[in-house]
């Protein structure tokens, strides 16, 4: 037989001109009553050879090839000329053998084998799954169809044969390899049998054994409906009944306990201290309070009147004390004669403390830029000296134009001691205090804890132990893949400073610092609990939702609400039967869930009209050129869209896995951590400008991977729109759901990533993330960003940087070579842009405040115009990372980190630009990469991982 039959010059077309077969142009002129079973095998080959098809084989519409059947008493033979495939046959048996000969050619009959990536059907909802026909446990660029279709002789009609041809073609469409034949193959892994029965129903007799039963008259209509049905993720019916059952089974969390707290304010305690003192006569009093500057000025004037015997009263900030001291008291001394400022800082050397040696430099941030904004002194002329033997915390010197040096001020910052939640370390936050001086000598000092410290001690001493006791009886897996409690909501009302600085995105906010302490220190508390009880941390204790409320002049108070996690065992749902109405419409689905059987009417999934995120919602309404599907719902029941971008074919069914085999694919995840706000609008912008790339590649995108976290972020930003809000970083119950990918879990947002890998087997995975846009400090965790991180994130290190992951062993050299090419491509794209200038600015900031003192804690791995980290101290190493799980075929796995927690307007726009530049560079590199698919009999392959 002429090989052109199975080519673009024969049965197939390239509808979009991308060099890939994506349509079928075949008319099968099947006479009524002619029933060659081999036609099913032929149509399976038709589906296998293309990436897309519609069901039009038996409808004449000017197709390129027409198959005709001519009965003859002389011979059985085939001829193919001028677009006509003429099959001459003596009987149906010989015609079947002829069709198989044309179909298989030299391909031998194969037998199902172990350790190969077969499609499997363990529930009827998996016949037409998100990834095609059947499912696989693990993702793979190969998928084998091993299918045997049988029909009881008495049931076969021309109408039924046509529908079985469509079933075989569609089943074969999604695979990259077929165990031929698909009829009379008793060794096949999946069986699909047509039998006679009074009721028309599809049943799963056991795993991979499917039976469609009915009457001779009703079966064609039932199969017609089922073969054309689509998965619920596309707005179809298949599996929607299981989704609705999962959504209906969710329970609301019940209140476990509630507590309130209140106390005298630190202002009242300072005043009581002043009243009780006998050393006020002719004294100079220095007071430290966690109050806004205007409130502190008011208190200074008020107390000066109450205590007229005092010479003077200055009230300083007890939060970022050194910064405020220079800002409020020394700035006026930095007159035009001062050219440079040198700040000598005491080195913190307490070995049992969590504070870094440069802690007091950190507390000065960003004083150099503030001085630049307020005076004629450039920030580079404000420098630090770290002194190990210095007594005062700070000494500030000015270098004058005449070359002389003068001391401008000296400050000793009071601190208090507090145990850390792990009970092994201590922290020393700056604190409120009263210092009384007479004749230049300190005669009295009273340390008075801040409202924040008083509250935090109560939280550690009362709330956390009570919560620990309440969840002491827990089940296996809780604290790891499921939480110990649903969430704790903490409302705090305090009089604290909240101010934006005229420097970058910086701000003064002691309550934001408390928000971060409550979140991360609570995580560390339960991590230590896990270590104590099981020898491994509880990294999924539950959601921690701190809501901070600024109330100037009011006494501090707080409310704690803890919600219980209902740890019911989740039973996997299996659909075992589908019934049909007389017209063939799907009617009811019968599901087994544990020992319970559920019957559900079959309806289409209603595609969401809007999306939580305004950028995604706007894009979805205005864009019809790409395909939007919904692999799963989040824990809080938000359908999670995935945007699939490929050159359109206009066909009804498409094979994603085969499109990746014949063209390259990149998968980009955005919005995984919801407080990292630039990746979602950036990915939408990227898609609007990527149409021209689709001739050689496919792009698959999750625009918002964590809708539950985004929903929490919207609540948190109502009162404080510019905080970092790390509490919204994980999912609804505070779980890093990346850790439960590829597992059975109630947190189905984790399934989307793995479903995309199963469906598309992408060459490159890109994970768009973010870092804080302004200072991240935690006074009750050593002031630096959380001790759980091996490196510091206390200030931005770049406008954007990259992280590259490589496998530990398999294909490591290739992965590292690909990574270096990506680094070069991204560097080239960013060089000579404003983003490169911003990266250089932030690198100098990062060096000045951290890297020059502690390079291991503040690492830099440089490339031109950008930092790009490859070391495992920064790169994630858990097993659900794509390139670590599938090093045999994933070519690169990249993280982007933009300084976007949480930003707006111009700052957001530059982060979007940076993310877009970075992502576009990777797309361009993959676009240019050479990838040649090969053919081995009934198997399509290409070399993986691709060499960029």
TrEMBL record:
Any single GO BP term: proteolysis
Molecular function GO labels: metallocarboxypeptidase activity; zinc ion binding
Organism lineage string: Bacteria, Bacillati, Bacillota, Bacilli, Bacillales
Protein name per Swiss-Prot or TrEMBL: Peptidase M14 domain-containing protein
Residue ranges annotated for the Peptidase M14 domain, each copy included: 660-731
Domain of life: Bacteria
Matching Pfam families: Peptidase_M14 (PF00246)
InterPro entries assigned to the protein according to its UniProt record, in alphabetical order: Peptidase_M14
């Amino acid at each position: 037989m002429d090989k052109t039959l199975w080519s673009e010059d024969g049965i197939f077309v390239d509808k979009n001109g991308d060099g890939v077969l994506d349509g079928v142009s075949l008319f099968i002129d099947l006479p009524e009553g002619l029933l060659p079973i081999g036609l099913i095998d032929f149509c399976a080959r038709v589906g296998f050879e293309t990436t897309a098809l519609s069901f039009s084989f038996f409808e004449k519409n000017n197709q390129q090839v027409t198959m005709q059947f001519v009965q003859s008493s002389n011979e059985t033979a085939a001829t193919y000329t001028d677009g006509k495939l003429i099959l001459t046959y003596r009987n149906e048996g010989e015609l079947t053998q002829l069709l198989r000969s044309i179909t298989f050619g030299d391909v031998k009959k194969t037998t199902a084998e172990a350790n190969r990536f077969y499609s499997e059907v363990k529930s009827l909802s998996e016949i037409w799954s998100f990834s095609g026909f059947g499912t696989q446990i693990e993702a793979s660029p190969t998928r084998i169809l091993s299918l045997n279709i049988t029909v009881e002789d008495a049931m076969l009609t021309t109408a039924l044969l046509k529908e079985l041809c469509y079933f075989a073609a569609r089943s074969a469409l999604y695979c990259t390899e077929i165990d031929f034949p698909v009829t009379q193959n008793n060794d096949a892994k999946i069986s699909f049998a047509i039998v006679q029965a009074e009721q028309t129903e599809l049943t799963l007799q056991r795993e991979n054994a499917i039976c469609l039963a009915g009457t001779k008259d009703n079966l064609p209509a039932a199969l017609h409906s089922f073969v054309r049905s689509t998965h619920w993720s596309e707005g179809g019916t298949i599996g929607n009944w299981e989704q609705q059952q999962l959504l209906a089974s969710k329970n609301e969390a019940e209140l476990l306990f509630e507590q309130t707290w209140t106390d005298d304010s630190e202002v009242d305690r300072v005043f009581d201290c002043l009243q009780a003192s006998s050393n006020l006569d002719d004294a100079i009093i220095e007071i430290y309070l966690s109050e806004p500057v205007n409130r502190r000025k008011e208190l200074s004037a008020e107390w000066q009147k109450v205590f007229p015997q005092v010479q003077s009263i200055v009230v300083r900030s007890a939060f970022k004390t050194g910064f405020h001291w220079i800002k409020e008291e020394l700035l006026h001394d930095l007159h035009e004669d001062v050219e440079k400022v040198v700040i000598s800082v005491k080195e913190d050397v307490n070995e049992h403390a969590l504070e870094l040696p440069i802690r007091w430099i950190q507390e000065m941030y960003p004083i150099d830029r503030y001085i630049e904004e307020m005076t004629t002194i450039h920030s580079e002329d404000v420098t630090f000296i770290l002194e190990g033997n210095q007594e005062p915390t700070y000494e500030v010197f000015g270098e004058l134009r005449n070359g002389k040096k003068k001391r401008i001020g000296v400050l000793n910052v009071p601190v208090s001691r507090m145990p850390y939640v792990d009970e092994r370390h201590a922290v020393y936050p700056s604190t409120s205090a009263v210092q009384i001086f007479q004749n230049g000598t300190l005669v009295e000092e009273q340390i008075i804890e801040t409202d924040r410290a008083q509250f935090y001690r109560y939280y550690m001493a009362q709330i956390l132990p009570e919560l620990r006791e309440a969840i002491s009886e827990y089940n296996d897996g809780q604290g790891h893949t499921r939480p110990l409690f649903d969430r704790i909501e903490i409302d705090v009302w305090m009089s604290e400073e909240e101010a934006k600085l005229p420097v970058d995105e910086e701000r003064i906010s002691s309550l934001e610092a408390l928000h971060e302490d409550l979140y991360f220190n609570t995580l560390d508390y339960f991590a230590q609990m896990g270590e104590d009880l099981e020898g491994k941390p509880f990294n999924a204790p539950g959601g921690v939702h701190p809501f901070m409320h600024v109330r100037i002049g009011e006494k501090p108070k707080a409310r704690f609400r803890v919600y219980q996690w209902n740890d019911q065992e989740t039973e996997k749902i299996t659909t075992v039967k589908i019934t049909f109405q007389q017209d063939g419409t799907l009617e009811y689905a019968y599901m087994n869930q544990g020992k319970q059987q559920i019957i559900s009417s079959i309806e289409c999934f209603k595609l969401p009209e809007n999306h939580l995120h305004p950028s995604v919602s706007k894009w979805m309404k205005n864009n019809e050129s790409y395909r939007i599907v919904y692999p799963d719902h989040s824990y809080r029941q938000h359908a999670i869209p995935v945007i699939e971008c490929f050159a359109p074919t206009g066909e009804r069914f498409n094979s994603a896995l085969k499109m990746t085999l014949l063209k390259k694919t990149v998968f980009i995840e955005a919005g995984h951590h919801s407080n990292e706000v630039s990746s979602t609008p950036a990915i939408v912008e990227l898609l609007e400008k990527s149409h021209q790339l689709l001739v050689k590649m496919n792009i698959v995108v999750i625009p918002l991977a964590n809708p539950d976290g985004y929903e929490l972020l919207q609540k948190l930003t109502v009162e404080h729109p510019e905080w970092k809000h790390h509490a919204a970083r994980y999912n609804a119950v505070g779980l890093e759901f990346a850790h439960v990918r590829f597992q059975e879990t109630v947190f189905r947002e984790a399934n989307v990533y793995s479903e995309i890998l199963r469906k598309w087997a992408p060459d490159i995975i890109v994970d768009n993330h973010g870092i804080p846009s302004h200072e991240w400090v935690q006074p009750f965790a050593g002031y630096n960003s959380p001790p759980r991180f091996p490196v510091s994130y206390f200030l931005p290190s770049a406008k954007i940087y990259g992280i590259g992951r490589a496998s530990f062993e398999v294909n490591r050299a290739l992965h590292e070579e690909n990574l270096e090419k990506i680094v070069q491509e991204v560097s080239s794209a960013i060089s000579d842009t404003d983003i490169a200038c911003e990266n250089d600015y932030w690198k100098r900031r990062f060096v000045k405040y951290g890297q020059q003192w502690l390079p291991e804690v503040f690492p830099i791995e440089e490339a031109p115009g950008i930092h790009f980290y490859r070391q495992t101290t920064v790169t994630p190493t858990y097993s659900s990372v794509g390139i670590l799980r599938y090093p045999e075929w994933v070519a690169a796995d990249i993280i982007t980190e933009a300084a976007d927690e949480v930003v707006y307007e111009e700052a957001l726009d530059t982060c979007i630009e940076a993310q877009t530049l970075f992502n576009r560079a990777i797309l361009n590199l993959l676009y240019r990469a050479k990838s040649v698919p090969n053919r081995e009999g009934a198997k399509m392959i290409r070399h993986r991982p691709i060499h960029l």
